[in-house]
Amino acid sequence: MQANELKSTIHLCGPIIRWLVVVLIVLVGLCDSQVTAQDSDNLPRRLEASHLPNPVQVHATVISGGLPEGDAAFKELAELGIKTIISVDGMKPDLEAAKKYGLRYVHLPHGYDGVPESRVWELAKAVQTLDGPVYIHCHHGKHRSPAAASVACVAAGLVKPEKAIEILELAGTNKNYVGLYQSARQSRPLPTAELSSFSPELPEVAEVPPMAEAMVGLGHTYEHIQLIAGSNWQTPKKHPDLDPVHEALLLREHYTELLRTPEVNAEPEEFKRMLRESESAARKLETLLSQWQASRNGQTLPAEVPAEIPAQAKIIADNCKACHVHFRDVPLNKR
């Protein structure tokens, strides 16, 4: 074929090739949209994870779950393709571990009483604009994080409002957290133009009120006490660093320090009574555990735990539950 004939052939084929390329692009787009629709129909769904508590896929780019603890958890997040972690827990995020695996942390804490409207806007903007996929977590991944993921995705237009409650139910959110369910039930897509122009600060570490921060520390120590109780009031095999007497001491100190704060002094008398009673029970628990340990004289602890030990722990547990019902978990619109 002569050079002129080749040029003529290429010129004639050009429009045909361009037309075929356009058709292929359209077909690929249709296939992608069908896959996305199918994926959306299958969500929310539980995920399998080795080091992440209660992970739930809420949207193709949003996963709800519990606190990532330790190197293995952050490594697993990176392996899942997560780019941004949003904490709605009061605890200070582990920035060092996140940065080790190239993950960004954003701290937008809220309580068990519901997700405030201002926080809904921030969460929606975060899931809409930050690098994804996004992992939203609280402590256990059962209550606050599914509520946050639910309202964020609905508000950002990623999830239909009728899916909101389903997300909480799948995650196992306790029905007693009326405020969280209320936030999910009332969630609606935010105005597109207003959300687009909204430019919130999305901090790595948020300023948490002193009492809220103290409650976070108390909660973690109380969980240690529960682990010890589950191990017949001895050091748990999986947590050799937990000494029963020391953890009881730390628990008592949490209550003592809380009772000294101006914030607690401004709370209702019933709230303060519960704290004082729990402080006294924690002090007795510390003494009883110490005496029980001393009684063994280097021998294996007796199988029979003194009845007064779980009795004091029950006082603390009962006060904790009552405090949550009457103060912590009251829906925002009923305060």
Structure description:
One of its GO terms (molecular function) is iron ion binding. InterPro entries: Cyt_c_II, Prot-tyrosine_phosphatase-like, Tyr_Pase_AS. This is Cytochrome C. The chain is of the alpha/beta class. It folds into 2 domains: 45-197, Protein-Tyrosine Phosphatase, Chain A (Alpha-Beta Complex); 210-334, Four Helix Bundle (Hemerythrin (Met), subunit A) (Up-down Bundle). The chain has 13 helices and 6 strands. The protein has a 6-stranded mixed sheet. It is globular and about 70 Å long. Residues 5-13 and 17-38 have low confidence and may be disordered.
The CATH architecture category of the largest domain equals Alpha-Beta Complex
Low-confidence stretches: 5-13, 17-38
Helical segment count: 13
Enter the CATH topology name of the largest domain: Protein-Tyrosine Phosphatase, Chain A
Overall mean pLDDT: 83
Radius of gyration: 27 Å
Strand content: 5-15%
Structural class by helix and strand composition? alpha/beta
At the first level of CATH, the class of the largest domain is Alpha Beta
Overall, the morphology is globular
Span between termini: 87 Å
Please, what is the oligomeric state?
A: single chain
Protein name: Cytochrome C
GO molecular function, one term: iron ion binding
What labels describe this entry?
Protein-Tyrosine Phosphatase, Chain A; globular; 2 domains; alpha/beta
Describe how the helices and strands are arranged.
Layout: H1 3-41, E1 45-46, E2 56-59, E3 62-65, H2 71-79, E4 84-87, H3 95-100, E5 104-107, H4 117-129, E6 134-137, H5 144-155, H6 164-171, H7 178-186, H8 192-197, H9 210-229, H10 244-259, H11 262-265, H12 269-295, H13 308-328
Parallel strand pairs: 3-6, 4-5, 4-6
Antiparallel strand pairs: 1-2, 2-3
Helix pairs in contact: 4-5, 5-6, 5-7, 9-10, 10-12, 12-13
